[in-house]
Amino acid sequence: MDFDVLDYISKDEKPHIPTNQQNEEILFKRSTPIIDHNIDTVSSSTENTYDTRCQVVPLQLLDLPPVKTMPYFVIFTILKLLKPSVQLNFSHTQSSQDTDNTTGLPNLLETYFYDHNEEEKKNITNLIDITMLWFKKNWNFIFNLASINIEYKQKFVNKIRSLLANNSKASLLSYYTNIIAFCENSLDTEMASSMDLQTVTVTKEHILRECSLRIAENCGRTAQPSTSRFFQLDNMCKRIELFEPGLTNDNLGFKTWGASLKLSQIICNYVFPTDYLYSKNNFNCANDANKNYKILELGAGTGLVGISFICKNMLDTETKNTYAANGIDVYLTDLPEITENLWRNVKLNYKMDDQRNSTNNKVIVDVLDWTDPSAFIKANRITQFDVILIADPIYSPQHPYLIVNMMKTFLRKPRSDGDNTGIKGGVVLLEIPVRDKYEKERQLLWDLLDQNGLQIIHQNVETGVDDFGPTKYIFSKIAWKGNM
């Protein structure tokens, strides 16, 4: 799609707007956030007018000042505030802070700038202050800012962010390219706004970098920069945070896929170990009360499935396992280029203090090459796992063979101790998407399971979503034949 970078430059604006050179002379000095202590003197009619315009009238990009008339710090602040909202379960969710004006500005900044450190958040607050002052002096008819207190900051931020909902993606992209064109033609390299003991300096490079991020975020998942996303699952109190590096074609493990979310929800619905390892006809697992359970995730990627298991059964005080007296060892595995980010995500959700405070539970992130697992076996001295977790593992013709081989290698074999309780061996929880391109590979997988002494003891088709839209998924619970 073609965008005209001049779409948002008006030729003749009636309101007088100072030029960038004039705006360089506007210095806002302070050492604390700007608070108008005379807010009580603002007339009710002025405040009502503000509420009417800021809460009822939708803000359009054309309502903003022409880009060429705004100082760099104003452009930069607008770009910062147009950062997409937090993604929750593959959807951009509108936080209550977008509409609840009783919520303080610090909480709102925490919502949208969770990936910034405290100093960066402080700078953003400063930029919002001086940007509001600039609008109050030069372009106040769309905001009617009577003061710069917390309440008005909240409304100002919400008003700017409403541009995301009130304008099409094409319009936003055109606006961003307009800003880039302006910066490329501008002779100014930087603009500073001085305050007591500190100076906020916004350069052309700052604007171009922020603008590039906004454009990439609107160009599909494969073009998006590194980001964090969040997942909230039923039957689990903790919200999971995952960091995703920029996606490349040869590192698909850097993205969280829809099958992981579906399998994670099943994990949160299950009670461990009864729903995993014991049949409905005999769910008394007292004989295994002193067992140390071993859990393996194959191809963990960003780690959602394994982390969900950890949070549900090892961390959540309301739902964590009460049967495994000798603890649970969870191994999250993938290829070498994936495990660094995988370990990062584990640490985001499972603090090492949790492991040090528990002598029974362990979380291990390690490399496991499906074509040659010998290094993993040697390093960990283990080949028998009670539960194997696999999500979306088929994206080449060789994968069905490799997956079944991993099951044969690592799935705990049936016991021969005469115990008739439940399943006499480990189980595999497998979630795969129904992709037309890999129909033959899916059928090959089912055939290989049967040929290698494995059976599907439960299977169902369900619908879910990810970044690429709705998809059907097949959930399968797999065990050794004759183990029910």
TrEMBL record:
<dbReference type="InterPro" id="IPR019410">
    <property type="entry name" value="Methyltransf_16"/>
</dbReference>
<protein>
    <recommendedName>
        <fullName>Protein-lysine N-methyltransferase EFM2</fullName>
    </recommendedName>
</protein>
<dbReference type="GO" id="GO:0008757">
    <property type="term" value="F:S-adenosylmethionine-dependent methyltransferase activity"/>
</dbReference>
<dbReference type="InterPro" id="IPR029063">
    <property type="entry name" value="SAM-dependent_MTases_sf"/>
</dbReference>
<dbReference type="GO" id="GO:0005829">
    <property type="term" value="C:cytosol"/>
</dbReference>
<dbReference type="Pfam" id="PF10294">
    <property type="entry name" value="Methyltransf_16"/>
</dbReference>
